[in-house]
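Notes, p. 3: input format for complexes.
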Amino acid sequence: MDQRHVEGDLVLDETLFTEEEILARLKELAAEIERDYAGRDILLVGVLRGAVMVMADLARSLDRHVEMDWMAVSSYGSGTKSSGVVRILKDLDTDVSGRDVLIVEDIIDTGLTLSWLITNLRSRGPASVEIATLLRKPDAVQTEIDVKYVGFDIPNAFVVGYGLDFSEKYRNLRCIGTLAPHVYS
Ligand code: IMP
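Output follows (185 residues plus inosinic acid):
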């Protein structure tokens, strides 16, 4: 049984990244982050719920002290596309003024949610706000958002696993891939 199965059912059509490939890439990003933030404290801000796995593995790849906090936001949208109108469901517990904030994301699609989040966090007077995302889709590349750390640029397909869901399922898959048609048809 490979990483594409849940309860014996083959739920993924195609594997984009295995757990090993994801962890190897996160190690590379962690090395860049260690170099860029030498001598500065980092506050990692994870965006619930999708970024849980990325946060856990990225943070453990960093050979240095970090603080972690979480935000939960909901984006009002039609269908699967977000609108950029965002509501905070859970705010940070940490005061970010004067802090070096590194937002940790699972995926950037349109970038609208993230764009709102950056504006919101910048208004709180941090020393810096940067972004680390495991995945980035083509539409996001066209936005004005400067994403400092990108794991993989992927095609415009709906993917699940490693924190990413379809109707709250498949977040616990170890790999990332596209859903098999029998799952949603
Ligand atoms: P954006 O505002 O369009 O960038 O929305 C980003 C959010 O949409 C992500 O944090 C995910 O929760 C969700 N999302 C976008 N693409 C996918 C996907 O392929 N699979 C699962 N969730 C996705």
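The longest strand covers residues 67-78.
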